[in-house]
């Protein structure tokens, strides 16, 4: 009896240990199911050889191939010397871009671009740098993971954007600002002596999608990272990342010369302050020779900055650019600023401060701009600074952590959100001047370009809390590398590498993912509503919020509901924020009759009874979207149930439970918003929808609970 129990426990334990806990992300490398295909792959990948001199980065490529092939094919692959005479192997070749070619001479590679091709019975992974070969290696592994043929290989790709950054909003005490996946993955008290193996897996994941820079600390920065004590810790992280082509950057606390350096001022034009930063920067490069540079949030949301001394953002950025001197580093200066101006429109404030500074930034300084003018809402029009600062390289900042998109309980695939921004035409230099082309530098011929994603990563075993959140990390990296990829293709690729290769399930999951962002918008902020979420923690709905420390932190500031209608008039009759865009954009969005409904209330105050292009009145359309949006979560649940046989049981159950929360909260949003806006619209909930079963007061209490101390 005892024996049976013992074995039963043993079996259960073993089963649990094989359950997919999500730690391996999209680099799972589970054995491929099709034996014939495995055999074909095995023959093509019998050995690995590094041509020429090896290096730590190439060693990473070799290790990854060995790991991947072992898992996917069950094949132990040795490293061979003098491979040129052999066949059936993978050759890693670093060579100048002119010599990379085999079958395809047309496409030029940039320094991180790779080419993977077949040559004399071998597979060659070639590129002009070690990092390029590493990226090519991951591309080759992706072919296997998604079960693509290896015959006549011709994969050619170069990143379109140079600085592909992940921004961590991690604090020295281990918390993560707007983090929903546990605490920080950086263990400051253990560093530099102890290197958590997780750092290496983090670097592998990033390299596999082409991310080449990480800002490890919050933009609301602590000066601690600039101390010798912490620089040694940062250097330890850098030593891990370096092997994967990733450089480390720091967010800086503007007032450090005063608080850390003991100076009387942090004025960027003060010679002592300048010297302090130059010395500090030299010290950093001594500790971390390939340090990437600085990210700065200044004079924003209470952070100190050059304006404290009557200087402007360019003067601040240029001082740091000067401190970087001959070092190979950059400054990313954030444009997320909005003065407390109760008569103004927050939409316009960053533009008004930064546009006049165009042409005043040093060569090494880039301006980092959020995708939209307010703050990472579920849908925003593109930031009017894109296309308005032709002399300044602009870094696009998107948020992967779901601060305004349901934390880690709502399934919201962000590929479509990022793509929507990238693909919108700014008309800066005529038709086709999309945000993507402004950012990649092609519109204004910039030599330097960047993109940043605010990380959704934490100490949770599966990294992102919501298992599907991994797709957002993945999609961001893939789009940072190549913004022409489709978000649906990326979703499919991720699903196949991470969840299942079963064709029907792949289609179902991809379809859910692609629709999920629009569904989220519908049940939270449809028709261009924005910033009506709960105060400070940004959780749940609070459209009635009318008092806060600043007017532009309330909801009523943005939705402007009254007895006549709803929405923020940003036309010439209103704040005229529309005038910040080029005439073509103004034309597209400026007329309430023709403005796309997704942006309607961003730019217009629309009467409740106004008939929209759908044939419904504004009120009815609003209700329609809230109700169908919430119902769509039920549809997502059904879809997820269908794919159950194809998904790891633990993982399936995890997502199913989160979908339950999502459904509950979608109804919460719907009820809160329709009941609240009804007090202005004074109309019934249209058929066939049933009015909420609870009162507005009852819904308000839920928000109160979450905001209790
Ligand atoms: C807002 C966040 C805040 C960040 C800020 C920023 O609520 O926590 O510090 O953005 O980007 O979205 O600086």
Automatic annotation (TrEMBL):
<dbReference type="InterPro" id="IPR011395">
    <property type="entry name" value="Glyco_hydro_67_aGlcAse"/>
</dbReference>
<protein>
    <recommendedName>
        <fullName>Xylan alpha-1,2-glucuronidase</fullName>
        <ecNumber>3.2.1.131</ecNumber>
    </recommendedName>
</protein>
<feature type="domain" description="Glycosyl hydrolase family 67 C-terminal">
    <location>
        <begin position="464"/>
        <end position="687"/>
    </location>
</feature>
<keyword id="KW-0326">Glycosidase</keyword>
<feature type="active site" description="Proton donor">
    <location>
        <position position="301"/>
    </location>
</feature>
<feature type="signal peptide">
    <location>
        <begin position="1"/>
        <end position="19"/>
    </location>
</feature>
<feature type="active site" description="Proton acceptor">
    <location>
        <position position="375"/>
    </location>
</feature>
<dbReference type="InterPro" id="IPR005154">
    <property type="entry name" value="Glyco_hydro_67_aGlcAse_N"/>
</dbReference>
<dbReference type="InterPro" id="IPR037054">
    <property type="entry name" value="A-glucoronidase_C_sf"/>
</dbReference>
<keyword id="KW-0624">Polysaccharide degradation</keyword>
<dbReference type="Pfam" id="PF07488">
    <property type="entry name" value="Glyco_hydro_67M"/>
</dbReference>
<feature type="domain" description="Glycosyl hydrolase family 67 catalytic">
    <location>
        <begin position="144"/>
        <end position="463"/>
    </location>
</feature>
<dbReference type="InterPro" id="IPR011099">
    <property type="entry name" value="Glyco_hydro_67_C"/>
</dbReference>
<dbReference type="InterPro" id="IPR029018">
    <property type="entry name" value="Hex-like_dom2"/>
</dbReference>
<feature type="domain" description="Alpha glucuronidase N-terminal">
    <location>
        <begin position="25"/>
        <end position="140"/>
    </location>
</feature>
<dbReference type="GO" id="GO:0005576">
    <property type="term" value="C:extracellular region"/>
</dbReference>
<dbReference type="InterPro" id="IPR011100">
    <property type="entry name" value="Glyco_hydro_67_cat"/>
</dbReference>
<dbReference type="InterPro" id="IPR017853">
    <property type="entry name" value="GH"/>
</dbReference>
<comment type="subunit">
    <text>Homodimer.</text>
</comment>
<dbReference type="Pfam" id="PF07477">
    <property type="entry name" value="Glyco_hydro_67C"/>
</dbReference>
<dbReference type="Pfam" id="PF03648">
    <property type="entry name" value="Glyco_hydro_67N"/>
</dbReference>
<dbReference type="GO" id="GO:0045493">
    <property type="term" value="P:xylan catabolic process"/>
</dbReference>
<comment type="similarity">
    <text>Belongs to the glycosyl hydrolase 67 family.</text>
</comment>
<keyword id="KW-0732">Signal</keyword>
<dbReference type="GO" id="GO:0046559">
    <property type="term" value="F:alpha-glucuronidase activity"/>
</dbReference>
<feature type="active site" description="Proton acceptor">
    <location>
        <position position="403"/>
    </location>
</feature>
<keyword id="KW-0119">Carbohydrate metabolism</keyword>
<dbReference type="GO" id="GO:0033939">
    <property type="term" value="F:xylan alpha-1,2-glucuronosidase activity"/>
</dbReference>
<keyword id="KW-0858">Xylan degradation</keyword>
<keyword id="KW-0378">Hydrolase</keyword>
């Amino acid at each position: 009896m005892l024996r049976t129990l013992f074995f039963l426990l043993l079996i259960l334990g073993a089963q649990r240990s094989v359950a997919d806990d999500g730690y391996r992300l999209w680099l799972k490398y589970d054995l491929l199911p099709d034996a014939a295909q495995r055999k074909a792959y095995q023959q093509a990948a019998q050995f690995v050889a590094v041509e020429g001199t090896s290096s730590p980065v190439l060693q990473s490529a070799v290790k990854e191939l060995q790991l991947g092939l072992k898992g996917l094919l069950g094949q132990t692959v040795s490293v061979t010397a003098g491979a040129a005479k052999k066949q059936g192997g993978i050759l890693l070749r670093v060579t100048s871009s002119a010599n990379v070619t085999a079958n395809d001479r047309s496409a030029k590679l940039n320094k991180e671009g790779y080419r993977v091709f077949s040559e004399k019975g071998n597979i060659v992974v070639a590129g002009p740098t070690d990092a390029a070969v590493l990226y090519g290696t991951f591309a080759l592994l992706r072919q296997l993971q998604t079960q693509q043929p290896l015959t006549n290989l011709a994969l050619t790709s170069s990143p379109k954007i140079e600085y592909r950054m992940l921004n961590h909003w991690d604090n020295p005490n281990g918390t993560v600002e707007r983090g929903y996946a546990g605490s920080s993955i950086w263990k400051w008290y253990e560093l530099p002596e102890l290197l958590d193996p997780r750092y290496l897996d983090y670097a592998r994941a990033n390299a596999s999608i082409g991310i080449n820079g990480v800002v490890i600390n919050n933009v609301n920065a602590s000066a601690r990272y600039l101390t010798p004590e912490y620089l040694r810790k940062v250097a330890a992280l850098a030593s891990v990342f370096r092997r994967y082509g990733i450089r480390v950057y720091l967010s800086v606390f503007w007032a450090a010369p005063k608080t850390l350096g003991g100076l009387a001022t942090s004025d960027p034009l003060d010679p002592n302050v300048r010297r302090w930063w130059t010395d500090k920067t030299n010290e950093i490069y001594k500790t971390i020779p390939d340090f990437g540079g600085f990210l700065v949030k200044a004079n924003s949301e209470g952070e100190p900055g050059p304006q404290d001394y009557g200087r402007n953002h360019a003067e601040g950025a240029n001082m740091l650019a000067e401190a970087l001197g001959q070092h190979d580093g950059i400054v990313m200066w954030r444009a997320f600023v909005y003065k407390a101006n109760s008569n103004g429109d927050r939409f316009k404030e960053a533009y008004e401060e930064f546009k006049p500074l165009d042409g005043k930034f040093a060569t090494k300084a880039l301006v980092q701009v959020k995708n939209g003018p307010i703050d990472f809402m579920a849908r925003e029009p593109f930031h009017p600074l894109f296309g308005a600062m032709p002399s300044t390289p602009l870094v696009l900042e998107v948020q992967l952590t779901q601060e305004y998109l349901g934390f880690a309980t709502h399934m919201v695939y962000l590929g479509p959100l990022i793509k929507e921004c990238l693909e919108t035409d700014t008309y800066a230099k005529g038709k086709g001047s999309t945000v993507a082309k402004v950012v990649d530098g092609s519109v204004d011929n910039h030599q330097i370009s960047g993109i940043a994603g605010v990380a959704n990563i934490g100490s949770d075993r599966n990294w992102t809390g919501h298992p599907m959140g991994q797709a957002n990390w993945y999609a961001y990296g893939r789009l940072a590398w190549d913004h022409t990829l489709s978000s649906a293709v990326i979703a499919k690729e991720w699903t196949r590498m991470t969840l299942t290769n079963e064709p029907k399930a792949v289609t179902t999951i991809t379809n859910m993912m692609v629709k999920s962002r629009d569904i989220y918008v519908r049940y939270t902020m449809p028709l261009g509503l924005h910033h009506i979420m709960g105060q400070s923690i940004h959780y749940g709905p609070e459209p009635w919020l009318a008092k806060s420390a600043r007017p532009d932190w309330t909801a009523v500031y943005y939705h402007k509901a009254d007895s006549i209608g709803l929405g923020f008039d940003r036309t010439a009759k209103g704040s005229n924020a529309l005038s910040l865009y080029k005439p073509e954009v103004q034309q597209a969005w400026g007329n309430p009759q023709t403005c796309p409904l997704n942006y309607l209330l961003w730019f217009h105050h629309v009467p409740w009874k106004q008939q929209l292009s759908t044939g419904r009145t504004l009120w009815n359309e609003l209700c329609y979207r809230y109700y169908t949006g919430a119902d769509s979560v039920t549809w997502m649940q059904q879809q997820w149930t269908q794919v159950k046989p194809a998904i790891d049981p633990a993982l399936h159950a995890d997502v199913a439970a989160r979908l339950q929360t999502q459904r509950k909260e979608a109804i919460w949003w719907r009820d809160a918003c329709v009941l609240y806006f009804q007090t202005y619209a004074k109309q019934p909930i249209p058929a066939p929808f049933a009015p909420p079963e609870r009162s507005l007061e009852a819904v308000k209490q839920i928000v109160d609970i979450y905001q209790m101390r």
